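so my prof wants the structure for this chain in the tokens format not the other one, which i didnt know existed until like an hour ago. anyway here's the sequence
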Amino acid sequence: MKKYVYESKRSYQSPEYEPVKLKEYIIFRDKTTQEKFMILDFVNNDQETINTIKFEIEQFTRDGKLIRKGDYIYENFEVKGYKHFVPYGKIAVSENCESIKMNLLSACYETKKWTSGKWEMVENNQVQYLNNSNNRMNGFVLRFTKYGISFPLSISIILFLLFFSISILISIYVLKYDIYRTLF
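here's what i got, hopefully its the right format
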């Protein structure tokens, strides 16, 4: 961290209803290139493990004038429920940036997804939309896919070999017993 110079650390108040909240951000400067960057400190405000977030950052001048706006995606990570996390990577900041506004666009969990204030349940590679007023299923759409094998292949192979070996041993025992019975 000797390459970077600390400039400011600011607390941030995210909306209460969002499942992932930005708690604070730190702005620092690279000594060699003189570019400004920020890192973000989030908290997973849900009990499930989160693995992807998409959000929008708006950068403002001291006067409140919008300088830059951008969408960011952090994926392929796991943070357990109610834990703080700092995503990998840094975000470039405009030279005149004095404050930011963060808008959470989506958050993907193990069994559900939050998008623009609506929860979707993820089950069997389908999305089931939840009505926020009474939490009933409204139907499902085939557009969200979970990647990976739900039951590890190695365990399946081991179980197959185990049951196959046991069946061979049982058949050998039965054949051996029948052979001895016919001899006596």
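also thought this was worth mentioning. Helices lie at 153-183.
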